[in-house]
Amino acid sequence: MIGVFDSGIGGLTVVKKIFEILPEYQILYFGDTARTPYGNRGAEVIKRYSLEAINFLIKKGAKIIIIACNTVSSVAYDFLKQKIKIPLFEVVTPAVEKAIEITLKNPKYPKRAVKRIGVIGTRATIDSKIYKKLIENKTTKIKVFQKAAPLLVPLIEEGWLKRMETKRIVKKYLYPLKFAQIDTLILACTHYPIIKNLIKIKIGKRVNIVDSGEEVVYKLKKYLESNSAVAKELIKGNQHKFFVSDLTSHNQQIANYWLQRKIKLEKINL
Amino acid sequence: MIGVFDSGIGGLTVVKKIFEILPEYQILYFGDTARTPYGNRGAEVIKRYSLEAINFLIKKGAKIIIIACNTVSSVAYDFLKQKIKIPLFEVVTPAVEKAIEITLKNPKYPKRAVKRIGVIGTRATIDSKIYKKLIENKTTKIKVFQKAAPLLVPLIEEGWLKRMETKRIVKKYLYPLKFAQIDTLILACTHYPIIKNLIKIKIGKRVNIVDSGEEVVYKLKKYLESNSAVAKELIKGNQHKFFVSDLTSHNQQIANYWLQRKIKLEKINL
Fold it and tell me: Which domain holds residue B159?
């Protein structure tokens, strides 16, 4: 089975993409809802919690792991890579590659010599500067502008998707990136696709949007196509499983709504 | 020492009140910042985490415990009382007593036969209905109106204390209580005193405000006055200690700002 790990329920947007693109595979999801959100936490705590979570998925039978969380991918991937012996996919690199490609191919401001990519994410993701470092180390033709947007996760989890307050806050967070006239915006948090349309409107329709959660699924698809033995192994199993470390009716409701299908969250103690 | 426990840093508003009213006592604080916020979590998780936290404070030398968190007081107090052998103060009962007293003595709408108390708190606190049950069981002269306000904690922790967005969201949360024409409003979360003035303006200046964190400190004062042997024991020690399960520069900054003094947060692993 494909293990998908997120600090909470944001990773379900990645699961939804897997359902679309790789419907034949079985998913083993774990969301650390008892300790979510990770986005404001320090690196040591994020590493420790992530390792526990991934070990749980491996114990349950996951043969590869998708880290469907930008905070964990940004802060803990190097650490986890050393500890985990099975294939580990993170969401940052695929988004970086896609953002560079699309920015150079289809910039909003084609006459500018140096193109511009904006990144929004949690405080931990932005403070790690990982997107900025990876992109600017790969090419001198792009400059990266970052903005932490810590209130978006709680607003999205509250279901305030179309409220005036959410619109104002999204606008406020995007303002410095809009002011910087970015060509491309990276959604560096797997919660953000839930308000992708709103973000699109606020940043301007001609800005390219790169969804980190979507890109990792395309990367996974390529990997499975060129590793057919692994792919064969992963197809086995007869049903998806969704584990969480805390189960409330609110979580269950959001999960069904985001996935647009009825699933059963199962509570486990980490 | 007096052990003060909160799910995060909200309990520091209670510590501030202890500093004002009981300056001779030593504080041993623990904030579970690695797993905060508790306010949206289920009861089992809240009980388990709280027990770990309080046992940590006892191991460190606390002789009495203040649960400076409405979520824990609402959902886990009965459970904790059975497990913990030292005196345990929670924030709900003192606020209930004060709210009944002030509402009957000084109602905003004196001509109405049945007076009205409003309560705002986290989802877990409001879902427990503890304030409603306790007040309406004690008197038939008061009806209780509740409203969960889950976005206030993240807004306050972001430091968005005077922003237009915060004002609008506070107004929105208070609207049903204002519409119900309440006489008294209970701030059933130890974060809320940070925006007490804003809340006062939005609910209307003649509505009584009861701060649950403040009331527990008055109750503690009375207890110490009538238990002088305990009080003597608690005065010993020569410095306050502040422990957290996750330490970030953001947390440290908020802590200093809220307490209006420089303290040193120490990180421990629970």
Answer: 92-213
The answer to whether B35 contacts A35, with C-beta atoms less than 8 Å apart, is yes
Number of domains composing chain B? 2
Indicate whether B238 pLDDT > 90. Answer: no
Domain match, A72 and A158 both: no
> How high is the ipTM of this complex?
0.93
B158/A contact by beta carbon, under 8 A: yes
Indicate the pLDDT class of residue B193, thresholds 50, 70 and 90.
Answer: very high
Q: Are residues A152 and A243 in the same domain?
A: no
Residue of B9, B32, B35 for testing the chain A interface, max A β-carbons within 10 Å: B35
A123: contact with B, CB 8 A cutoff = yes
Please indicate whether, in this complex, the C-beta atoms of B165 and A160 are within 8 angstroms of each other. no
Measured distance CA(A28)–CA(A15) in Å, rounded: 10
| Among the partner residues B42, B157, B168, nearest to A247 by beta-carbon distance | B42
pLDDT recorded at residue B236: 72
Q: Are residues A198 and A241 both part of a single domain?
A: no
- For chain A, the 3-state helix, strand and coil shares in percent, each to the nearest 5, are 50, 15, 30
Residues B105 and B187 in one domain: yes
Same domain? For A222 and A208 the reply is no
Per-residue exposure over B209-233, b if at least 16 CB sit within 10 Å of its own CB, e if not:
bbbbbbbbbebbbeebeeeeeebee
Of the residues A212, A238, A254, the one at which a domain ends: A212
Residue A270: pLDDT band (50, 70, 90) is confident
pTM as predicted: 0.95
- Both A143 and A119 in a single domain? yes
Output the pLDDT for position A234. Answer: 84
Do B85 and B96 lie in one domain? The reply is: no
Query: Which of A41, A123, A246 has its CB closest to that of B34?
Result: A41
Segment B1-12 shows an average pLDDT of: 96
Helix ranges, A8-122 (H): 12-21, 43-59, 70-83, 92-105
CATH number of the domain bearing residue B206: 3.40.50.1860
Distance from CA of B250 to the nearest CA of A (A): 8
Residue B6 half-sphere exposure toward CB, CA atoms < 13 A = 23
Residue-wise pLDDT tens digits, A95-143: 999 999 999 999 999 999 999 999 999 999 999 999 999 999 999 999 9
